[in-house]
Amino acid sequence: MDHQPPPFFKRGPAPLALLSFYVTLSVALLVVDARLQTLEVLRQALSLFTHPVQQFAHLPAQLLDNATGYFVSLSRLQDENVQLKRARLENVTTLLRTQQLEVENERLRKLLAVKERQQASGQLAQILYAARDPYSRRIVIDKGQQDKVVAGQPIIDDAGVVGQVTRVFPFVAEVTLITDKEQAVPVQIVRTGQRSVVFGLGNGQLELRFLPANADVQNGDVLVTSGLDGIFLPGFPVAKVVHIERDTSYSFARIFCMPLAGVENFSEVMVLDPRPAVALPAQLASEAAGREAKPPVRAGQARKKRLRKD
Amino acid sequence: MQTSYSSSRILLPVRPWFIGLSLTVALLLNFLPTAAWPGVPDWLALVIVFWSVHEPRRVGMGLAFLFGVAMDVADASLLGQHALAYVLVAYGASSLSRRILWFPLAQQALQVFPLLLLVQLVQFSVRSMAGADFPGLAYFVGPCLATLLWPVLTFVLLLPQHQPVDRDANRPL
C-alpha cells in the first residue's frame, strides 16, 4: 500500500512534464510545417485572429503615411504631373507602335499556325508591409482568398518581376521576393537567347547559376522570364547582370545580378492571373494523362527538386 | 508576488487582467512594421520572461506557447519556431525566478540576458536546420537592448502593484 499525501496546493502537472509536452508539440509543428507543408489550413484559421491585431498595429504607421501624403506641397505635385505628362508623350510613340506590332504579330503567328501569345492580365495590389522574419524575404499584399488569389501567381511592378505568391490568407497574401534564398526564376538572356535559372541570394542580389565559365554573358545583360516554367509569362524583365567572376578552377562562372523591379520598395504591384496550362501535343497529353502527373505549384520548388536529383 | 532584494515596500497582488493587457501590448509592439530595423527587441519575449520571473504560477509555458504560435502566423516564419523558443524561455525563467529576484535590478538584467539570447539562438538553430543563412550579427542586438530595458520594464509593469505611501505615526510598520 503506497499512499501519497494529499497535495496542499494545486499546482498542476510538474514543470518538466509541461515542458516536454509543449516542446514536443512545437517540434511536431515545426517538422510538419517544414517537411510536409500541410499546415496551411491551420495557419489560415489562426490568421483570422492575428490579422485584426496586425491591422490595428499598423494603424499608426498608416495614419502617419496618410498625413505626410496630405501635406505634400502643391508645387511638387504639379511638377510631378508635368513630368508624368511629358513621359507619357515620350512613350506614346512606342506604345502606339507596340499595339500595332502586337496585332501584326498575332496575325503572323496565325498565318504560321504558331500558338498565340497569352495576354497578361491581373489585378492591382498594395504592398502592406515586409514580413518581420529576418531569414526570408517576403512581403504581404492586400489581396487574398477573397480576391481569388492562389499560391503560385507571379507578381510584377512597372519595371519587372517582383516575386511569387507563396501563401494565401483570407484577406492578405504572402509574396516571396525573387531575392529570397528559396526562390528561383527561369530566365533567358535577351542578347543571346541563352536560357538559365536565376536564384535569389538572400542579400538583395540574384545569381545566375550553372553557366559554364566561358559562357557569353556580359555586364549589363538583361534577363527576362523564359516562360518555360508554365507560371511566369515569357518576356518580363527580371534582372540585370552586374558582376561576373570567371575562375578557371571552377567549371561554372559566378554571375551576380540586380533585380530590375523595385523589389525592396513599397509601392503598388500587379498580381498576374495564373497561366492556363499549356496544351500538350495529342500524343504527349495521352501519355501524361496515364501518369496523372501533378502540376508544379511553385517554380522554385519544382526546379530545386530537379536539381537535387541530377 | 514574491519577496525580492529591494522588497522594503510590500507590493499589492497582481491583477490578472493587467498581465493579459501587458502581453497583448507586447504582441502589438511586435506586430509593428519594424522589419527594416534589425535591432528591435522582441517585446513579447521580454514580457513573457518578466511575468515568468515575477508570477511563475500565473504565466507559464501554456501562454508562452499560444503567443508563440500567434507570432509564427503573423511573422511568416516556420510554425512552431517562436512557440518553441518562448516555451523554453518561460521554463527557464520560472525555474530561475527565485534566484533572479534576489538580485538588484542591474544584476537581474544580467541574469535575464542569457534567457533573451536563448530566444534568438533557438530560433536561429531551428531556421538553420531548415536551410536558412545566418541573418547577421544585428540579429543579436535585440536581446542586448532588451536587457538594458529590463529595469525600465520592471518599474512600469510593477507600477499598478505599488501601494500608496501613507505613513501612520502610531503604527510604524
Structure summarized in a few sentences:
Chain A is α+β, with helices and mostly antiparallel strands and 310 residues long.
Fold and architecture overview:
The complex is a heterodimer of chains A (310) and B (173). Chain A has 310 residues and is an alpha+beta fold. Chain A folds into three domains: 16-70, no CATH class; 75-117; 121-275, Beta Barrel (Thrombin, subunit H). Chain A contains five helices and twelve strands. Chain A has helices at residues 15-36, 40-70, 74-111, 282-291, 299-309, and strands at 122-130, 138-141, 154-156, 161-168, 173-177, 184-189, 195-200, 206-208, 222-225, 237-245, 254-259, 268-272. A six-stranded antiparallel β-barrel of chain A has the order 1-2-5-4-3-12. In chain A, strands 6-7-8-11-10-9 form a six-stranded antiparallel β-barrel. The relative contact order of chain A is 0.11. The model of chain A is unreliable at 295-310 (pLDDT under 50). Chain B is an all-alpha fold and 173 residues long. Chain B has one domain. In chain B, 61% of the residues lie in helices and 0% in strands. Chain B has helices spanning 16-31, 43-54, 61-75, 81-100, 105-129, 141-158. In chain B, helix 1 (16-31) packs antiparallel against helix 2 (43-54), helix 2 (43-54) runs parallel beside helix 4 (81-100) and helix 3 runs antiparallel to helix 4 (81-100). Chain B is elongated and about 70 Å long. The model of chain B has no long low-confidence stretch (mean pLDDT 85). The interface between A and B is large, with 44 and 45 residues.
- Write down the Rg of chain A: 25 Å
The most extensive interface between chains reads: A-B, 44 and 45 residues
Major beta sheet summary of chain B:
none
CATH topology of the largest domain in chain A: Thrombin, subunit H
CATH class of the largest domain in chain A: Mainly Beta
- How far is it from the N-terminal to the C-terminal residue of chain A, by CA? 66 Å
Q: How many helical elements of chain B?
A: 6
Chain-averaged pLDDT of chain B? 85
